Structure formats: structure tokens, C-alpha cells
Amino acid sequence: MTFQDKPIQCFDCGVTFTFTPEEQASFQSKGFTNSPKWCPTCRQSRKERQASTGQRDHIPGYQSQRQTFTATYSRCGNSTQVLFQPREGRAVYCRDCYSSVRVSR
After folding, report:
1. How far apart are CA 40 and CA 61, in angstroms?
2. What pLDDT sits at residue 15?
3. Is 77 left (phi over 0), alpha (psi -120 to 50) or beta?
4. CA 90 to each of CA 57, 85, 87, 95: distance values in angstroms, whole numbers, following the listed order
5. How far apart are CA 15 and CA 12, in angstroms?
6. Mapped to the 3 state alphabet, what secondary structure does the chain carry?
7. How many Å apart are CA 2 and CA 74, to the nearest integer?
8. Rounded CA gap, 82 and 85, in Å?
């Protein structure tokens, strides 16, 4: 496949940068199907920010700090943190309790 220079506008800073044939070949060899959204400068600053904070922020609108809720397992009574808000009247099971409930159905 032959690649040609491809102008792309950076998602963050709005600068138009060139996605070179070499970069396109590299992206393809890694299995990437989309073109980059950020210019090399913004990409580098994002990588540095991720390395220093340990948080991922590469997806626009991505919340790096997920909200967690405390839940008490319905059968064994142990507490845990979950990524969904438990609703009144709905059972929350740990892996072991769920396995036993699932077998009995």
C-alpha cells in the first residue's frame, strides 16, 4: 500500500500537522486503524502528563477518576467498592456468591 502525506488538524491546539507516509506505515504495522488526533507536540505533552499523574486522558471526555460506590454483598455481607450505584432492592453478589446463586437457578 502506498501512503501519501496527510494533513490533519490537532484536536487540542488546532494546528495542522502532516501525517507522513512513514508514520502511516508505522501505525499500520502496529494495527492502528485510525489516524492520530493530536500533533506530535500535544502527543508528547499528553504522554508526559500521563506518566507524571498515572492517569489516562487520551480520550476526549474521558473521566480519569471514576466515581465508586460502597456496596454490601447480598449473601455474604462483605463490603466492596463498585463502579455503579447500587439500587434499593437489587442484589449485589461477589464472585463466589454469584457462582452459587447461578448454579441453583
Report:
1. 20
2. 95
3. left
4. 33, 11, 6, 16
5. 8
6. CCCCCEEEECCCCCCEEEECHHHHHHHHHCCCCCCCCCCHHHHHHHHHHHHHHCCCCCCCCCCCCCCCEEEECCCCCCEEEECCCCCCCCCCCCHHHHHHHHHHC
7. 59
8. 7
Q: What angle do CA 44, 49, 52 make, to 5 degrees?
A: 125
Nearest to 19 by CA among 9, 29, 33: 9
Query: Which residue's entry shows cell 447500587?
Result: 86
Q: Which of 93, 100, 101 is nearest to 76 (CA)?
A: 93
Cα gap 79→71, rounded to integer Å: 6
**For residue 81, what is its C-alpha cell?**
467498592
Longest dimension (CA), the chain: 61
Residues 26-82 have pLDDT tens digits of 999 999 999 999 999 999 998 888 877 766 555 555 555 678 889 999 889 999 888
